Give the backbone structure.
Amino acid sequence: MTHHATDTHTLAAAYALGALDDAERNDFATHLQDCEACRQEAAEFEATAARLAAAVAQPPPPAAKEQVLAAIDEVRQLPPRVPAPAPAPAPARGGILTRRAVPLALAASVAAAALGGIAVWQTQDGQDLKAQARQAQQQLDTISSVLAAADARAVHGRAANGALTTVVSSERQNKAVFTAARLPAPGAGKTYQLWLDHDGIMRPAGLIDHDGTVILTGNPADAGAVGLTLEPAGGSPQPTTDPLLLMTLPA
């Protein structure tokens, strides 16, 4: 498949997430030898995917193995599913590449812990499990969509309390994803609050109280930076403490 040069530069996310076919991957690997910008962007996406996966991973409770083994004999096995033959792919038009595989690749690297852990290991009643699974799936769909966007851009930072942070944004989708690792516990009656800086006016953009990933609320398109502060539980309409982080949104 022949790519225009401008299209090649948009493949960094798909390359980092393993969503290219063999020919595309080889072509992009060759391109990386001469393109410092794409090498850096691919490395950032690889780090972001790894950080997202670590943020949503949950260790199973100690009794989970025994419970699963005890339930195996009571579970009716389903017959194998035989997939229908896949239709032949339509040829690309004008060199524009469709990255349909990117959300699937992201799911492989991020969602296994988030959804598999909820569906199998959590010891809660069925309704709670279904609600959590739906919520996790919706969040994953949005995260996948942002990271798979052709215009996705990432920026990394370190908060004053040592937390490692990443923001990935898509201007076309007007969405941004924030993830934190090594985030210290906020303490009793406290939570971390995210903010979008609109020309010096800080507007609430969501809460996060432990390592994980959240979709920023509000309007990131008109914001210049993302802030993080420690606030009373439930959040505040305006920051009440000095920012632990004020990170410029990726252009």
Summary: The first strand starts at residue 153 and ends at 158. The radius of gyration is 21 Å.
